[in-house]
Amino acid sequence: MTKTKLQTIFLTAAMALCLAVPAHAQKLTVKDEGEGKYAYLKESGVKEIMARFPAPPAAGSAQERKDKLEVLDWQTARTDQQCEAAMKQEDVKLTGFFTGDAYPFEGQPPEVLEFFKKTGADMRLACRLMKNHFKRPRPSDPSIIYCTQEVGSKYSYPSRHAATAFLFAIILSELDPANREKYLQAADRSGQYRVIAGVHYPTDLIAGSNFARDLYPEFNQNPNFQKDLQSLRKYLKKKPAKKK
To answer: 120 exposed, middle or buried (CB, 10 Å; 0-12, 13-18, 19+)?
Structure first.
């Protein structure tokens, strides 16, 4: 075998290996998705919640130190597989958060995907407002190697991933209450991946889930949201008939 062929084989194998390894990074790139318009929410309602929402742990407080320690602990405890799973959920989508038994629909009907795209976009705008209000910087330490390279904001409180995943879990529970725990567990797991990735503190996740619960009644006040939500029932997986 010629030297050129050997070099080609080695280069191809090296490239394949690089593609298989998570794109770890020591610095984060902020890709702000910009402004937008609410589909179902009213900004006045979001601001009312924001006015009474608890602030993140104060800088230098015992809670903040505890938060940071948990993020740093995951730096040594996590596996490459966990990093890969965290990266797969970078896009804030229904089909990324809920898979297998935790996905309740037959296939991926456009109406279902559009509804969750609209509610997710509303949550993005609401979280943007909250993050810019509280201005909590993301975890930062020389020892942190992030499981991702890109985030949507330089601020972390509340976690948009956790807020969106829990909002979706609440909606799915409305449609399919028998599997509520599955949806909540999937949402909790999705949020935890953000701590594993090094881009969020645990209290960011708690704030995200609480924000989703506070915000859901605001969605429900919109008749179009209620109508669109109920229209999804026909796409739910058919439950197997009970044996006689």
So the answer is: buried
> pLDDT tens, 133-183?
999 999 999 999 999 888 999 999 999 999 999 999 999 999 999 999 999
CA–CA dist 200, 226 (Å, integer): 32
Domains of the chain listed by start with CATH number: 28-51+60-235 (1.20.144.10)
Read off the pTM.
0.87
Q: Report the sign of the C-alpha dihedral through residues 48, 51, 56, 62, in that order.
A: negative
